[in-house]
Amino acid sequence: MADTARVTNKGARRWAGGHPWIYRSDVTERPGSPAGAVMVEDNRNRKLGWALWSPASEISLRMIERDPEVAIDGAWWRTQIERAAARRSGMHANVNAYRLIHGEGDGCPSLICDRYDRWLVVQMMSAGLEAFRNEIVAALLDVTKAEGILARNDVPLRSKEGLERNTELLHGDVPREIVVEEYGVKFIVAPWSGQKTGAFLDQRENRRRVGELARGRALDCFSYHGSFALHLAAKADEVLAVDSSGQALVRAAENAKLNGFENIRYVEADAFDHLRELERTGERFDTIVLDPPAFAKSKTHLAGALRGYKDVNLLGMKLLARGGRLYTASCSFHLTKPLFLEMLQEAAAESGRTIAFREFLGQPLDHPEILSIPETGYLKGALLEAMD
Q: How many other CB atoms sit within 10 Å of the CB of residue 144?
């Protein structure tokens, strides 16, 4: 018989309500087994299903299967990965870089898998999941026929799980650089050393949307490798790409060259400082993108983050030409959609401009946001227009 975990009524209700996480404080009887899959029961001995068990983690149980009769084995993982791949079946026509598995959003808690052309980059972020590494790798290869799989297991979350942090080749070979394409725009991905798994895939559809609307003078702040700037450059007369990392801008220039764009200018500067300087000198832009890093990495940072978001958006609004468009985003989970919109309202009120809200933009199809699992949704974007 499988080792069993027993949970409180609160923990059982959480799972019944569609959220897979059960915290340590709601586990009344801990399994004696090492990390892996365990049966979960409520305080009346009713079987709730299977969970990934992480003995050292605050999130002790990550529920994965409601049917207690199902075996959690290689075949189970293959089915989950097949289903995730099927949800993305229409994407191949326009892009060759996308998220294949979005953790809890695809019923695979703590597993991230991004596809870059013929290669996969994974992150296994819980001890319970790590116990199935071999089964997951075999299933990924079977479903995708990937030429190589790299594990970017260098994320801090693994330390909280009692796991080693490293970057490790799991199968075949994965190049240091991969050229990928989205809607006709090419850029270089660095799976071994780049941010996240090598690139920011969650803004892909928003880059396309903003690129469609781009015109005149364009400004891309927090440009990193120039992903937004590339889409802007196709229609704008000129693009100013601003980032604090000179090394990142070198890669942005390489990406521009790859696409034959010669209308992008690069400025290595703190985005806040440069925006203030642009305002001081009376500059105006027809298209602006503000895609900052997550200012609020925890609830304790939220107040400061709100000030930062408001300041950068206030500056952006002031720099818009009449009829200009601003795309602004936040990838901070703790900054909720209502707070995000309230912050934009306050910035607009202080800007002295008449700012219209045109579109709310969020996560793409390959980053499913499950309504009962708020943690699967973090990206918020707004398309605004200066009316005066």
A: 17
With respect to residue 232, please indicate whether it lies within any of the assigned structural domains: yes
The residue assigned the tokens 């009713």 is 46
Residues 6+ apart with CB under 8 A from 131: 34, 35, 36, 37, 52
Residue 141 is part of which domain span?
74-178
Q: What is the pLDDT of residues 143-195, one digit of tens each?
A: 999 999 999 999 999 999 999 999 999 999 999 999 999 999 999 999 999 98
d(CA 151, CA 201): 17
Taking phi over 0 as left and psi of -120 to 50 as alpha, with beta for the rest, 222 belongs to left
Q: Are residues 122 and 252 in the same domain?
A: no
Could you tell me if residue 184 is inside a domain?
no
Residues known to be catalytic:
331
Sheet with strand 27-29: strands edge to edge = 21-22, 61-65, 47-53, 36-41, 4-7, 27-29
352-382 tens-digit pLDDT: 999 999 999 999 999 999 999 999 999 999 9
> How many of the other CB atoms lie within 10 Å of CB of 366?
24
pTM above 0.70, yes or no: yes
Write out the H or E segment, with its range, that includes residue 181. strand 178-182
Q: Does one domain contain both 17 and 80? A: no
Contact yes or no for 41/47 (Cβ under 8 A): yes
pLDDT value, residue 18: 97
Contact between 67 and 30 under an 8 Å Cβ cutoff? The reply is no
Cβ(81)–Cβ(129) under 8 Å?
no
**Looking at the structure, do residues 123 and 230 belong to the same domain, yes or no?**
no
